[in-house]
Amino acid sequence: MTFMWPIGFVLLIPLALTLWLWRMPSRMLTVMRIITTLLVVLAICGPAIRLPSRAGTVIVVTDQSQSMPPSSRDLQNEAIELIQSAMSSSDSLGVVSFAQSSLVARTPGAGKTPGGHMDMRKDASNLNDALDMALSLIPPESPGRIMVLSDGRWTGLNPTSSATRAAARRIAVDYRCIEHTTANDTAIVRLDAPAAVTPGESFMLTAWVRSPVRQEISYSLTGGGKLLASGKRTVPSGLSRVTFRDKAAQPGTNSYRLTVTGGDGDPMPENNSAKLLLGVRGPRP
């Protein structure tokens, strides 16, 4: 409970003196007079109860990274329009787009502005920073909600910390998964190599390739900007191993990149390549 004019409580001082100096003839009348005086003072102060507001802020967080399917922008726009149409005039909607960085694509209360996307570098998916930015757009002590439209393939810091901060403010974080179909997807699961080698030492590079069916794949391995190996081979359905051999040269860091290509209609070509750094120990010339 709050009071509109709390200065009115100052009246209790002269009223208390009046009750003391001009006492009533009976105890009952004195109690009734005290109660009446208190009620009058409370009425003067204007008591009020602050009811929780149902108006709030909804922040839609849209993933713009390379791992999202080509139709993701249309699906995200559709979700934003559905949320906007279901909101009342006292609610506000904001949009945060993220990939390697996060940007406010629509500030809350900006009205039904078109779009909700911004151009940015798409080679990462920093969901943690996007959630922090979304939380900063919701006023303190105000109800809010965050809707994440992503495939869940985040990079950088674990977004659990941001979700914990949202829970501490009683802000719900909803999630809608928008991802590629995995049918007919040829992918490099990982690329392994020794932790370190010495100059002149021969070593193996091992790639694990996942194929949806038995098929012929093309591969190419580059190192230091030079083509080291290329060709074709038949892989079975499921996970298979492809090995390469190389020999360390001078001390330093060697960079390798492997690319594989399967049949037509690969829904996720971005997972058809993998990079690896290998340290070569030894004194530099």
From TrEMBL:
Presence of keyword Metal-binding: no
Region called Disordered, residue ranges: 253-273
The entry's keywords: Membrane, Transmembrane, Transmembrane helix
All copies of domain VWFA, residue ranges: 58-152
Annotated transmembrane regions: 6-22, 29-49
InterPro entries recorded: VWF_A, vWFA_dom_sf
A Pfam family this chain is assigned to: VWA_2
Protein name per Swiss-Prot or TrEMBL: VWFA domain-containing protein
